[in-house]
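Hello,

Following up on my earlier ticket. Below are the two sequence lines again, exactly as submitted.
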Amino acid sequence: MKFTLINNLQKDSAMSLVLKGFLVFILLYLVSDVVVMNSNFGISADKVNTTLFGNEEEYIDPISEASFLEFWHTEIFFIMMILLTLSAIFIRVAKRSRIILTNILMISSISSLIFLPLAYYMSNFFVHLYIFTYFIWHIMALYMILYSFWKLNAKSV
Amino acid sequence: MQKAYKLSILYYLAFSLLLIVSAVMLFEHKIGFSFNGVVDYYVGNEDKFIPAKSLVGILKIVLPHIFVFGLLAMVLLHFLVFTEHRYKKSTLVLIYLTFTTALLEMFTPFLIVVGLEFFAYIKLFSFFIFLALILYVSWLLLRSIIKE
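Thanks for your patience. The regenerated structure is below:
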């Protein structure tokens, strides 16, 4: 987190390059996450419902509680670490709207992680909310990555 | 500290809380919070059709946790450096305790499997103490952010 203390990131070519490299990796993670989720867990209401509750017509068993809890537990850790570092970079380079955008990113990601167990344990109504918030935080994170990348290439930060 | 960075830390604390909730639910579901539950999970129980864990099997579970516990504790504890708790002796004790309980929580299953069943108590104790310490550090950080 040393980059939060550097006055002019653009002048520090090494730190700027490190951050750009890191942003590329976060971008790759987000894209891969959507692709993997689409093929395994699902990113549509129907697919997520099938994964969580099974489908008798297609002879698909529901996910076991242990597998679900392991999945949820792992997701929380990865998302918290990625969003902490991404928001730290974004806050460092962005001047306007950084608080509101950080709030949207964090609230939507935390909400998606809360809606997921609510969907599994309480009602499949929360599946829709989970998918909605999942896409909100992915879109917001994508915007923050691209904006940070653009700002790191600007004349001064 | 800038207001925006405080916001990031606040959300990190919220994520940590969520991680603790999921850890407790997972532990309760897979192992259980009793001495017998812990011993059965690692040593196995024929009556309950629970297979015994091998040392390599435990290592496979422990492996990602070594990185995760270390990173989680480091990130959370290093935020204390930016607060009024930086120069306190109690902060050093807190840091030692957090890393020690994390180590005990991860490595006691190896001792349980080799026959030292008493360490099931240590496993349970260290699990709760580690989580309690994470919560306590989170509380210290939250209080510092609100006070500033």
